Amino acid sequence: MSYPILTSCPVCTHTLSVTQLHCSHCETTIENTFALTSLLSLSQEQLHFVEIFLVCRGNIKEVEKELGISYPTVRGKLNDIVQVLRPDVQSGTKPDSDEKKIVEMLETGVISADEALKLLKKG
């Protein structure tokens, strides 16, 4: 049985490094320090989103339909993923916590679309 690779220590939460690769067919073992792809830094939810995004070929409208979420939520998730993969890259929008809170309140019905637009324009 295969398990997903752990990227952080379950004890102290620091980043783990891969130091051994093994072939179960010929029993070859290679030891060294191996770099992990930054995709492994994404959460399971983020990886699922990336999979849906790729299946939809980057069409945000299709991602909205597939996941049943709004355009701002899709953009927010994309910005979050970019931030994990490339922390040095500034996102094209201002995905601050206030904007996320407004979108969440809109999606849960706490505020109307008009109220959300007013709040977003203020920010």
Explain the overall architecture.
This protein is mainly alpha-helical and 123 residues long. The protein has a domain at 95-123. The chain contains five helices and two strands; from the N terminus they run E-E-H-H-H-H-H. It has helices at residues 44-55, 60-67, 71-85, 97-107, 113-122; strands at residues 18-22, 29-34. The protein has a two-stranded antiparallel sheet. Helix 4 (97-107) packs antiparallel against helix 5. The longest helix is centred in the middle third of the chain and has 15 residues, at 71-85. The chain starts with 17 loop residues before the first strand and ends with a helix.
Shape type:
elongated
**Topology as a string of helices (H) and strands (E):** EEHHHHH
Tell me the major beta sheet: 2 strands, antiparallel
Distance between the termini: 50 Å
Any idea what the radius of gyration is? 19 Å
SSE-based structural type: mainly alpha
pLDDT below 50 for ≥5 consecutive residues: which ranges?
Answer: none
Strand order of the largest sheet: 1-2
Give me the number of helical elements: 5
Question: Count of DSSP E strands?
Answer: 2
- Percent strand equals 5-15%
Helix content: 40-55%
Mean pLDDT: 86
